[in-house]
Amino acid sequence: MTELNGVKENGAPDVLVVGAGPTGLTLALDLTRRGVHALVVERADTLFPGSRGKGLQPRTLELFDDLGVGDAVREASAHAPIGQIWQDGRPVGEHDMLGDSGVGGPTDTEPHPRARLLPQWRTQEILFERLTGLGGRVRFGTALTGFDQDPAGVSAYLSDGSTLRAAYLVAADGGRSTVRKALDIGMTGEAVDPAPMVVADVRLRPGALDRDHWHLFPGPDGGFAALCPLPGTDEHQFVARTEDLDIPAVVADLTHLSAQDVTEVRWASDFRPRAAMADRFRAGRVLLAGDAAHVHSPAGGQGLNTSVQDAYNLGWKLGQVLRHGADPALLDTYEEERRPVAAHVLGLSTRIHRGQEERGGATRQLGLGYRGGPLSQGAAGALEAGDRAPDGPLPDGRRLFDLFRGPHFTLLAVGTDAELPPVSTEFLHVHRIGAYEPYGKGLFLVRPDGYVGWAGEDATGLPRYLARLTRPGSPAAGS
């Protein structure tokens, strides 16, 4: 048996991921770069073909940089155009669709201050290309038909008649998750809007609408339609409050365009905006992530972003358990950290959908963190454990995010000569830098997902904290 980047090419996976959407691909990519053998199974024959989750928030752009897909995402995407409001076939005003047009350019601490638009299908292609380039694999046309679990692992039964044995199974199979239903885990929530909606990818007759605006068509009684140009394509995403899937007819009914102006409907789907969250995110060796754990209104562009950040949180924890011998109880912190975030984002999306709150700083997700969480301990300088670790320039031309990039922890000593305990160079990288105001003076242990896990003025308590993250007696545990 050969190995690719430390990952077994054949044999039973360590983690079976159900669903090749953004969540499943992000998780598999993160695990693969850690040398964890992850296999994705996807019931469809191909990647998802639509644009549905097209908004990428700044925090997600930071995540993608770490995973090695940042350049490809930026090349394929664009900042959102200004919204142009139409009435009776005439433009009558403009609207900042994402609430970030007043945000300036990159800063020392925030290299990606504004959201970008990228069709979901292209985001998934980029993640898939990176995953397979590292030796990871997706089995298309393969559905999970059932599973059993015991204290040692999970037996998964697939539609091709095969059975796979894995240490853990992660459900990334969407809002109608078959895994969640099989576990009999409920979804608690509410309808955000009683009216049904459709979303579609369409091609328009050349010149029918310019591609410099996000076109908005308000209608009577709260009705509306929108046509947003999709970067890197000749298509628009069409969204409307209707249940009619005859897209050309709906475009003609709700805009000043004619049905003939729609030359092709590439993909279409209907849905009812809902906000709901799974009653729990873990049942033994099975974990829920993304839409399988929480569903959102599309307002504010939070769903895909929250979902891939679930994967980013879970990936390093599975890596610590499977590669570094951490106590499996570490996986309990996934739900403990991500459920409060999901609840916050659900509320935000719902308020934006109902017009109770404007898009803005909160939707960028840079302010989300884990203060007071089970893996957040201490404070120093300007930061408290649980905070997002800011970026910053270094004297050698690199940036702090360059130091953090990769599947390791980073112990950052800022403006201090405090003595440090012995650590494993594989598990934990150590860097000393001069005084930097966004951090202040102190020691900061930055997690692989870019949050401060531990902070202190000296190393007191650090070995005990590290002991939770690796096998007893390892150098990283301070023995």
Give a structural overview.
The chain has ten helices and 29 strands. The chain is an alpha+beta fold and 479 residues long. The two termini are 35 Å apart. 48% of the residues are buried.
Give me the secondary-structure topology.
Blueprint: E1 3-4, E2 7-8, E3 15-18, H1 22-33, E4 38-42, E5 55-56, H2 58-66, H3 70-76, E6 83-87, E7 90-95, E8 116-117, H4 120-133, E9 137-140, E10 144-150, E11 153-158, E12 163-166, E13 168-171, H5 178-182, E14 187-191, E15 197-204, E16 214-218, E17 224-229, E18 235-240, H6 247-254, E19 262-271, E20 274-278, E21 282-283, E22 286-288, E23 294-295, H7 303-324, H8 332-353, E24 377-380, E25 383-384, H9 400-404, E26 409-414, E27 428-433, E28 442-446, E29 452-456, H10 462-467
Parallel strand pairs: 3-4, 3-13, 4-9, 6-16, 13-22, 24-29, 26-27
Antiparallel strand pairs: 1-2, 5-8, 6-7, 10-11, 11-12, 14-20, 15-18, 15-19, 16-17, 17-18, 20-23, 21-22, 24-25, 26-28, 28-29
Which key features would you list for this structure?
six-stranded mixed beta sheet; 479 residues; 29 strands; FAD/NAD(P)-binding domain; globular; seven-stranded mixed beta sheet; 10 helices
Tally of discrete structural domains: 3
The biggest sheet amounts to: 7 strands, mixed
Mean pLDDT: 93
Radius of gyration: 23 Å
The dominant shape is globular
What's the β-strand tally? 29
Strand content: 25-35%
What's the helical proportion of residues?
10-25%
Identify the CATH architecture of the largest domain.
3-Layer(bba) Sandwich
